Amino acid sequence: MKIICVVKIVPDVDSFAYDYENNTLIRENIRMILNPDDACALACALKVKAAQPDCTVEVVTMGPPSVRPHVEDLLRLDTDRGTIISDPAYRGSDTYVTSRILARYLSTRPFDLLLTGSHALDGDTSHIPAQIAEELGLEQMSGITAVDFEHFDRQRAVFEVEYENSVVTYEMGLPAVLSLDRESGYQLPYVKYEDFQKDVSGKLTIIDNGELGFAAGEVGSEGSLTQVVRTYTQNFATRDRTLVQPDEKGIERVFNYLLEKGFLTK
Amino acid sequence: MNSETILNEVRKLLSPEQVNTDRETLYDASADRYKKYAKARGVLDVPMPLAIVYPNSTEEVSRLLQFCNEHRINVIPRAGKTATEGGLENWKQQTLVIDALNLNKIIKVDTYNMQATVQAGVALQDLEDELRKEGCTTGHSPQSKPVAKLGGLVATRSIGQLSTLYGGIEDMVVGLECVFPDGHISRIKNVSRRSGGPDIRHIAIGNEGTLCYITEVTVKCFKFYPENNRFYGYLVKDVEAGIKVLREVMVNGFRPSVARTYSEEDAAQHFYHFHKNKCVLLFMAEGPEGIVEATGRGIEAAAEKFKDGIIEQVDSKYIEDWFNNLNWSQQDIDDEFEGMKEHDSHAGFTTEISADWETIPKIYNSVMQRVREEYPRAHELTMLGGHSSHSYINGTNMYFVYNYDIHCAPEDEMRVYHHPLQKLIVEETLKFGGSMCHHHGIGKFRSEWTRDEHGSAYYMLEKLKAAFDPNGIMNFGTIFLQEEGRKYLT
Amino acid sequence: MKRTLIFQDTEQIERTADLLAVAGKMYGEEPFESYALVIDGAGAPAVAGNADTPTSCDSPGGLNNPASSASASSPGGPNDPAEALSGFFQHVIRVARHVAEPHDQLGICAILAELQQEYQFDSILVPATPFGRMIAPRLAKRLHTGLVADITDIRRQNGGVEIIRPAYSGRLMAAIATRGSGPVMMSVRPGVFTYSGRGGGDGAGNAGSPETEVREYTTPVESHGSLRRLAVKEKQISYDIRESEVLISGGGGVLRNFSGLQRLADALQGRVSASRKIVDRGIAPRSIQVGQSGRSVSPRLYIALGINGAIQHVEGMKNIESIISVNTNRNAPICSLSDIVVEGDAMEFVDKLTERIEAFRSDAHAEQGAQQ
Prior knowledge:
Chain A is built from seven helices and 15 strands. By secondary structure, chain A is α/β, with parallel strands linked by helices.
């Protein structure tokens, strides 16, 4: 079985600090991490591989050269192959273009299953998996919270998706794109201490536009159909800290606060 | 002698009920709080002891030590289990942990002569509670007070949060009783002072179980004046500014019971509700009314003199609240343990060092810089800071605190995070001529620097070890570096 | 006149009309023609029966016999999605059950593409439900047009339109512009927009209910894909405090009457959580302990009752919108993080606030009753 995991290296948004004085997010020196949903996807792939020795796992990401150390770390696990799609021409690509680029690469590779995450911490559009699937003529499902490893082979997969009030079990024919949610709980193992400096360059391939052959106007901001015009932070006021007593007046104050904030609607 | 035989012999030497070979208990006894995370995850890399034994008397301790000495069995003396530097960790296959659990009698409380005598297995809190009934206090208040026991507190040269007034354990011990590997029992009598040759109490005080087993201690009592407590708190520009004020107070001859300066991140742990991301300076004065008043004025004068470094004074009520919520309990330890099983995190580690007044800020700044610039996982640190909490006329300590997100396998946590950080701090401290171990003891995990710490005076320690423990059975790996144990140090 | 197609909200059909507010903001004063696409059988409760009995299973082969499905709806009947939208949209296109299942992404995408060919919509809006978030990008790809995901606002700027959406897990707002010749496509965050023309008015805000024209879509679809629903289980009520929007949290100050917190939690439809002090005493299980060594929580509302606020506790409180703390000590650390500090006895507060809320709710009920 051949599994390809499409992953993204994203800023660790949890470590963004907020500058109250200037009303901005402090985005310097932010760590980059493997997108948590994507980590679940790779963990799931490695779990399948552990049970089926002839399974191969490839990890693919599109990003700037700085993602290399992250991909190398993934190769220090049981991943067989890592591919970085990187070209300055691709900078500024929106999801429409990014999915085109990824799909073009993926169409050159043999695979039974594409595993991805469902949401990315930074953009969180969830477009890429669906759009890759559309480009490749495959079916896709997002939000997968459990994979049934008993009913899983090269022809079909059985999996669960958790919704607000229900859990639905689906079956889908393979090849297809399956997108996991971090709720699935599949955990990537940590690289072992002795492997921290392991040379994995033999398993790593870097692909640029020379191989994929897009015209300049087809990619980057030029080829994109959506564009971020500007960003701004919400106005996070520091808290008011109103002081009251638990007397009638104070209770009424609290009650009104709850009412205003919408905690008392049915 | 094989392990089965050892156990049988020990059961005969004491009684079967006094020998514990329960697997979980032995696993827990293999390491102390230094490896708390690996222990919680069940991935300790050290051998388990053969048994934990609970002698009922000093004579039984003597018989046990003789037996172990004869058969070259490693001995780990243990009481409250609060050790943090590997002092209780086991590095030998054939080890007996001798636990002072049953040596738990408060022998005498004498508030006329202001002395209290207890066995080594008495919890400090229990002794403190007894003294309070008579309007007295031990004056010894480490954060581990509810859990730590006197044997360990003396063996590690511990210090408490009120040391700036009352001193460290070494200032509080009057006499003691200890047992040596050859079985010899030494009782050092209780006198107010003497010059009868070198002060041999100090062979036991701080020996960390490498020379003898402490069975009984007598400590001084102090009168307790809670009604006179006074608190002061300030926000200061940086750690150095805070230390200047601390020095001024000490050098002018005042003895507050608590005198501390916290760096910003460390302050956030305790004072997030008022520190406005600044450093915190705080004092507490206690004792008889006149003294408290004078001490208060001394503190105020020092603050006034260095007011350029002070941003603002904070409401004393905040400091008082903080003081009233200080100590750990066994439940804190248990809770952290449960948390470590579930999450890839713990409550952090510390490295405590000391130096004179002008050197401490240099060490602090140098460590902070080196960690941020050189430590490869600096981005995973969730907290890095320090506080000065024990001051003397001629210097103070610096208690480095650090915590981090654990992004590695549990068995690798030490090598990836704790060791490299501790190494950096020790290196800088020794480079500047400070001491790498202010009050936690050397344990095992600073033993690779014991020689550097003592320099030419190491000779004296070495000779003591050769004299009292020629067979090397006492707490193998603690204080005295063992090549065989190197593998556990990296 | 501009034409907009709004795909139905597959979770709550009534919310579909809210997207008319989006169209209204886009087109401003300009009138527009509103179309809704509904799939027969979608939006009806997915679960019938108890948790262990799988329901709504597809029989092998893909196509379902409409009569055998628990969630089939009949035109004009109570579950008819077209019925729910009439009076709001000028046109409703209903896809008959035998043409495509509600979960058939490929089939429904094909239908949407067909409709775009036919009607040439200027904009297509999709509610950002789990299904919507999969079908919208696929359709955008098929139509070669840009898609803005999960929008929360639209602003008119200098003769143009700014589409606003959250990024970085909500920490940043981004304004997006689209280009190209295809329809403007957006997925819309549910619950953010409200169509104020409820029960009347067309998309352009004119008074009076439009006459809704319903069209039955029966053209067969080529490809349905292989996706089958095997089972649907009702989710067990989650007692996980991490999933609750409202937490009533008790600490040392409510030791004696911790169980009294449940009533307030019920009144606010929240859950009870605890500080370590409570758990240490064995009064509550560790699973509801908030803190660094317990659980990290991000509810919208956190009411801290008799909790001091040691850093270990506070580290478990992440990104909370509203914090109310009740403590006899107004200087307790947790008070510095609170929007409202109630200085006093926590149990007294719990009792009084619960009474106040229960009174409010029974008044509201009485009113409702009086109006029926």
